[in-house]
Amino acid sequence: MRGAAPARMRVKIKHTEPALVQMIVVSNAEGTESTQTFQMSTAGETTNSVGAATLRTRARWDGSELVIESWMPTPHREFHFKDHWSLSADGKTLTMAHRDDDLAGQIAVLERVPLSDPR
After folding, report:
1. Which of 22, 26, 27, 90 is spaced 20 to 30 A from 36 at the CA atom?
2. How far is CA 38 from CA 11, 57, 90, in A?
3. Nearest 5°: phi and psi at 95?
4. How many other CB atoms sit within 10 Å of the CB of residue 75?
5. Where along the chain do its domains lie?
6. How many helices (H) and strands (E) would you count in the chain?
């Protein structure tokens, strides 16, 4: 990941087509947690907040891969993010890759755990 790697990252995803909600909880080495929630739709553009910035997002299916494209304007330039989500055949591993955007090369591989698992 770009920047300091988190000590721990948990992602909860709720998907009922066309709606998708992604809640990300990141813990740093000191144990401080930050939470960010993103709501999106495969039926059109949505907006979310990241700090003081507004993020415009479009999600779409490309075969079995979900592509989530976002734009975040800042005073100096507009950032472009394009997440490519793919789920393993057994449904236990979600890979989120940035191939051709401002985070190109960043890949997160997430393993599914039961809701009762305290990890």
Report:
1. 90
2. 11, 9, 25
3. -110, 130
4. 5
5. 8-111
6. 0, 9
- Predicted confidence at residue 3, as pLDDT, reads 64
Instruction: Label residue 56 by pLDDT band (50, 70, 90).
Output: very high
The DSSP 8-state label assigned to residue 114 in this structure reads -
Q: Could you report the per-residue pLDDT of 6-36, keeping only the tens digit for each?
A: 888 889 999 999 999 999 998 988 889 999 9
Phi, psi of 30 (to 5 degrees): -85, -5
8-state DSSP, 112: -
* Fold exhibited by the domain 8-111: Lipocalin (2.40.128)
Residue type, 105: G
Q: For residues 52 and 58, give the distance between their C-alpha atoms in angstroms, rounded to a whole number.
A: 20
* Arithmetic mean of pLDDT, 104-112: 91
CA separation, residue 26 to residues 3, 16, 31, 46 (Å): 13, 24, 9, 23
Q: What are phi and psi of 12, to 5 degrees?
A: -115, 125
d(CA 25, CA 69): 21
Residue-level length of the chain: 119
